[in-house]
Amino acid sequence: MADEGAAYQEFAQAFIREAQQQKLLADVTQSATLQADTDLIVAVGIKAAAIAGNSHSPVLCVLVSKTGFEKLLRNLPSGGNKNNISAIYLDQPIKRQIAMIAAVLPEAKKIGLLFSASQDMAGYRKVIAERKLGLFEQKLESPASLYRDLESVLENSDVLLSIPDAEVYNSLSMRNILLATYRSKIPLAGFSPGYVRAGALCAVFSTPSQLAAQAVELSRQFVAAGVLPAPQYPGEFEVSINRQVANSLGIHVRENSVLTQEIKSAANTKEEAE
Questions:
Q1: What is the pTM of this model?
Q2: How is domain 94-204+237-266 classified at the architecture level of CATH?
Q3: Alpha-carbon torsion 80, 82, 86, 87, what sign?
Q4: Where in the chain do CATH 3.40.50.2300 domains reside?
Q5: What DSSP letter does each residue of 236-251 carry, written as one string?
Q6: pLDDT tens digits, one per residue of 129-159
């Protein structure tokens, strides 16, 4: 680990507990120097992944976004560890995100997306079309045009789906984005429980403990087969709803357990990276 945040600590503690149950010997370190007999490095967070990526040991990256992991791979030296590194993404599969919107907001017909030039929207277009939903997408022209571009999306959408795009959704912009959606009475579907606490209507996400259990399972597979599975999305997830926001927008949202089951049924996502 290269970070001491709460999510990192929760992941580490859950990983150690689960590893012990699987009879795997695991050690937690915040040092850039690893033991010589390390069979597999589980790099927690993008900083740790960047350090571990330059090692000669197999690396499983966790608590990293798909975009961040792909950038890490591109930046690794040509003779480096590219063929010996995998990941469990922090992002949710696109099918699961769209299934969440359909479950929480069954009346929503058009999904709005605001994104920067660094994002590939092909997967979103495909899944939204498969669900026979409409899409209004707006590429961010520049940081200065954020709120003008946002207004365009809100005027043409029933719900705004936020994605892990730091050029659009960051600590500087998030409060104003939430205020704009609230004023427009257009709900925001977030990608973390923090967004829901801040004022988004809903989010689908995986907890550090859920990710830890998946990481231990992939570690067990590595021990058995000697190779890492391909990069993949989280298998287990939770749904978070801001009931106060739902009430203020006049939206009736069913119980979390019902939503979770419906999302699982609609998006059977034991899938590899899209």
A1: 0.89
A2: 3-Layer(aba) Sandwich (3.40)
A3: positive
A4: 94-204+237-266
A5: --EEEE-HHHHHHTT-
A6: 999 999 999 999 998 999 999 999 999 999 9
